[in-house]
Amino acid sequence: MSLLPGQSPRWDEIDTVLLDLDGTLLDLAFDNYIWLARVTEIYAENNGLSLAETHAELAPRFKRVQGTLDWYSIDYWSAQLGIDIERVHREESHRVAWLPGARGFLEQVRECGKRLVLMTNSHPVILGIKEERTRVLSYLDAAYTSHGFGAPKEDQRFWIAARRAEPFDPARTMFVDDSKAVLHAAIEAGVRWVYGVKRPDTSREPHNHEEFAAIDGVVDLI
To answer: What distance in Å separates the CA atoms of residue 201 and residue 197, rounded to the nearest whole number?
Structure first.
């Protein structure tokens, strides 16, 4: 627990809890393995490249669309890379896992009568694969993807669409995510209680979230 005095949520002032999926509820180690290891390996094999050559080729292509809806689209990357991205996720789906304490957090918050809402950039097909493994959606009252809104969470258009679909009061809402850009967007959208997850991937070193109230995991908010 690393919240400073005054940063802990006052639950009596919160009605709605908006939650990221990957790196907040589910372990980002799965997604990082898919994109940083498996997809890279397959692309290298398919194109007769070394892993170093593959990283050098793909890095600028990834960077060009980072923070856009294409960045999160398996249709886009399947076409761009000539790889069935959905199939790769299904083949490795045994790696999908909850982050420590996340499921218990959802159960406790629901018992307190708060509305639990998923706000994810995950492609709907990938969300479906993760749902098959974890039943994460059964712990939530509603779920929305950026693909359904036509803009990623980094974009204020997402938050405008989110308010139409889910009429929450930003002043009485909590949002938790591991992405710096997304956290800034939530603050810009007026969300009162914003928290950054420092340990989204259990296989890697923690993030630094010096600009935000930071937690190791959602369980720290209880």
So the answer is: 10
Which residue's entry shows tokens 């109230």? Answer: 213
- Domains (range + CATH), the chain: 11-28+97-221 (3.40.50.1000), 30-94 (no CATH)
Q: How many C-beta atoms surround the C-beta of residue 177 within 10 A? A: 28
Q: What is the reported pTM?
A: 0.94
Tell which residue, 211, 221, 214, 143, has the closest CA to residue 181.
Answer: 211
DSSP for 90-151, please give it: HHTGGG--BPTTHHHHHHHHHHTT-EEEEEE-S-HHHHHHHHHHH-GGGG-SEEEEHHHHTS
Q: What is the CA radius of gyration of the chain?
A: 18
Q: Which segments of the chain are extended strands (E)? A: 16-19, 115-120, 142-145, 173-177, 193-197, 213-215
Q: Taking the CB of residue 37, how many other CB atoms lie within 10 A of it? A: 12
pLDDT digits (tens, 9 = 90+) for 163-197: 999 999 999 999 999 999 999 999 999 999 999 99
